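Sample pair:
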Amino acid sequence: MLINCVAYQDGKRLGEIQPDEIHDYLAKPGCFVWVALLERDPGVLEQMQAQFDLHPLAVEDAQYGHQRPKIEDYGDSLFVVLHLLEPDNGSLRVGEVNVFAGPNYVLTIRSHAEKGFQGVRARTESEPELLKLGSGYVLYALVDAVVDRYFPLLDAVETELEAIEDRIFAGTSPRENVEALYALKRKLGVFRHAVAPLLEAINNLYGARAPRVCSGMKEYFRDVSDHLQRLHQTIESIRDTIATAIAVNLSMITLQENETVKRLAAYGALIAVPTMIAGVYGMNFDYMPELRFRFGYVVAVALMVLIDVYLFHRLRKAKWL
């Protein structure tokens, strides 16, 4: 579905145009066209391919989707794939935006994502001096917007991790903690798949052999690379923390099991002493000391109680009970 199709000249918005008028505006000096599509429509994509002379391989990738983040150079044009991450009932929904950027055009195709790029268009139109640079600046603005959306989502993951760490030492269910940690680990995997390939690709946009589309935008793409580096470092730091938290949680489980074993051993000792005394006097021998002692039963029971009280006191002092 066509969201909008706008023509610009010398950094100023000329207005929305019809798709069949795109070729006419591309022929004008200092003019470029920015088209935004929602979801993949083979008919519309074929029309855009004819208007912009898009490379067939890039069109094929855009049509089928589910690509890893990448930036491919096709001579005087670029094909960019970015992952759009959005919260979805405690998990992350992964969308995709494909960007075709040529000398005088930008074509975006957004799929499986609710939030669009109206704010990016408004931002670029408010900076005509930069918009005058053409499609390179629009490409930077789109990539920068996508990368900036990752930060609050990653901050939420860090906050969730801190809450789980607090629960580990609060005596909550170890099983629930492990399940929550693995859920965070899966989320982090989604971030890694979105950030790591893009970081490698962005580094090629501001080097000595930067594409012509990005001419004059090296500093801006270097800034995006810096943001991606921060994201990548944060992701790796959270991964290490999750691994540590899982190990600590398993250690807490072992400690709890040890405490249980100690308590069972202590109670076993309290039962063993009376059992031993009763067992001795329950033996069927004719000649045993104190068998005819009048107070033998009372003395035996008292002895059991005294020994158990002593053992209980010592075990409590040793924190086994």
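The mean pLDDT is 86.
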